[in-house]
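User: Teach me something about this protein's shape.
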Amino acid sequence: WCPPSAEVRLAVSHCFQTLSKSTDSKDIPAALQKLNSYLDEGPESPTTSVHRAEFRRTHFTRSLQFLVNNIQADWFHKLTATQRTELWDSLFLRGPPEQALLVLMEGIGQLSLSSGLDHLVNITEKFLQSGRLTDLLWSYCLETAPSDSPQLRETLLGRIVALPDLTANRLHPNNKPLFLPQQYYPLLAAEMLTALDRTCQFFCSFLCSAVVLAVLVPHLSMCTCSDMVWQRICWKLLENVPQRWMDSVLTGLVEAVRGPDALGRIIGNLVLTNKKAQFVITHKLLLLQYKYETQTLRVVLGYLAADRDRRPLLIQVLRSLSQAWANPSAVKHTPVEQQLYVSKALLLSVALLKDSELLELRSELLQCLLGGMQSHLDSSVLRIRRMGMVVGECLSSRMDISGTKLKFEYDQDEETQELLSLITHTTGEDTEPDLNTSDDELTPYDMSGDQEISQASPPRYIRDCLETLISSEDPVRVELSLKAAEGLVRRNVFATKEISVQLTKVLLHMEDKYSIKSFVALRQSTMVAIVVTDCIPVTQYLTTEFYSLNYSLRQRLDILEVLALAAQELSKPTSNKSRPPITAVADLTPYPGDNPVHWRQIVEKRIQSKTKRLSKGATQTPAVASPNRYAPVAGHFFFPLLSNYDKPQVTFDLLGSDHLVLGRLIHTLGLFMHLAVNAPVFSHVYL
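Assistant: First, the predicted structure itself:
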């Protein structure tokens, strides 16, 4: 009796001897066929299964290395093209992908420029094109990969991440286009997404490349928007990032993500559980580096301010920034660009403070204001002095010290205007009355219709509206936010899309606790504006919630009304007034000869004046064509609402007691079909 391991070892050794010494042309294909048989996926007996597993675990790498070492042998060149593809190449493309990749990269690094090197390069290209990277990730996700050591795993990860560099160093200038970073890293990202779809897990170590993150982050941001499972996957993924790669991963994420909400959904409260992540987010990106755009600062600071548990870190960051800004040594010895970067971060941090937090920090900010302004104004550099003036004005305006605000005289440029725009509370200049006018000449105003001015001001940002509607108990602030919400939604599409689903959820569950005038109309118009602005995700949310549990009939009717109004608005032509002007109107009237259309108008007028007509109808302005915004999204309105009407819920039965809602549902579906009569999807519904 011979153990299975010994049988496989003897068979593999016999194949090696045949390939090395045989002169019979028929023995070579038979030996290669024997090695390929251990990689077959067909039906297998218990003995065959053991043999195949033993070969994959112990002899596969050795077999590939033997093939690479003999790539210049006579027997290799005697193989036909078909035999080479089916028997030789297939060994690299069918076995354990991690072992095959390591052997291929090792062979490319060792072989000199030759036909053998070209053949290995072609096999590596086929390896990538045939989805073997997905198989590699899949095997590790299922824990079916052979047991490996930390050293082997590090080597494998290094080969995958650095493949463009390794091939470029070896093959330049004859490198394959697929091995270039512009093609390889998007391919790697696509393979990772495929593994995610299969297992909802993948290796976090591949996230160091900015090219990879540029593909991954938008997809993850969309998936985490409405799916808590995806959020947990991303959180677990980031928790397992090796510490030495945490810096690169977080930096790439912050640069690639659209806004602070998306960053929060992807990384969660990682800064509270991982010291390295906390250092990168709260210190390195804000104080040690200054190469990032203002949007990156908004993302980082907005992420810290968006969650109650993370707000203490925002306070910590503000203290560090104020100390850095007011440090006289830093003002003298750090680059002006870094001081500008710190000034932006400081103003954004102060703008994100709540009134209660600002009250607690007022003494520290005042000390920072006085010391920092003195250091900046003493500088001999004009940009630094101007920077100190602008920041001083903004801080004093935000703190509102004793009702007085600092005001300096300086020339405004793009830099100062950007700094002024970063603070939420802006100052206004009072208009002085004309002292030469006598009181007797002043006409009294009719004050009978005046109303008491509220101390609260309407919000200027849609995110402020959301926070007020969620957490505020002040009836005045809630009313102002509800009244301003629709306008803010329509004016700032980008900011609305970041919180559209969350704001819709808040409005859908909102009750009129403070007896706000026109509460129902304001709530409904805002929800309609959100659907129009960010149609697909909000429509998917509303149509899903319509059949969910624990909703009142009034809420379900509200959903139908909002969807119907939004569909009608989307189907209407856009107003010409909302379109931006194509060209600006010049301040001066141009010389007639400079206008290429002028002579045509003159000739046309002369022709019209000399032409006799028997009758002349009314002049009609030709209609301006505009795209139908409803047609591409009509299916998102219609089909989800139609899918579950006959499935009774625990508290909801359309075909039973809740027939009132059924009637409204049928009416709404009919409206959707009527509005989509010219849309391509209408033909499918009609058939």
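Now, about its shape. The radius of gyration is 35 Å. The mean pLDDT is 80. If you'd like, I can walk through any region in more detail.
User: That's plenty for now, thanks!
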